[in-house]
Design goal:
The chain is mainly alpha-helical. The protein has a single domain, classed as minor pseudopilin epsh fold. Helix content is 50%, strand content 10%. The chain is built from seven helices and three strands, in the order ααααβββααα. Strands 2-1-3 form a three-stranded antiparallel β-sheet, with helices on both faces. Strand 1 and strand 2 form a beta hairpin. Helix 1 runs antiparallel to helix 2 and helix 3 crosses helix 4. The mean pLDDT is 96.
Length: 174
Amino acid sequence: MKELKLVKVSYDVASLKPVSSVANFDLHYYQIYKQYVEDFNNGVGDSSFNKAGAFLHDLYFENIREFRPNNKPIGKSEYVINMRHGSFERFEQALFDQASRLQGNGWVFVNSAGYVNIIPNNRIVDNVALIIDLWEHSFLQSYGNDRNKYLKDHMSIINWDVVNRRMLENKKED
């Protein structure tokens, strides 16, 4: 069994404001995510659940960056989104619509072909280009119960360079 490690973040956590406070990030990264990794590595609890939780958080923390107003896709992600949805605004609506289908906790993600889907609970999914954590720990402290506002604001911290790289890598594997 390969030991899991926390993904290193390349951004200043304070730069995620106003989407995430340092306190919310610390809870999310150093308590929730770290616990998945430690529980998996130590054989505590459901190993499949912990491995999936760690895997999805790896992808999540890698595909965010400092807050940027009017943060829009560029390159491959812009092309795929426009091809699949017609515009960034229609893509966002598809993302919000799928997220609203999620009952309870989970994730909303986009694959390399631009399709938007959800992951209820934790499950490893191939071909993830963009992923947003919709578990309450990711937004409750900063947004209360307003998951829609969190999701809309979250678009301003998406690292489209990472999404582009994943889209290109995933296409090679198809």
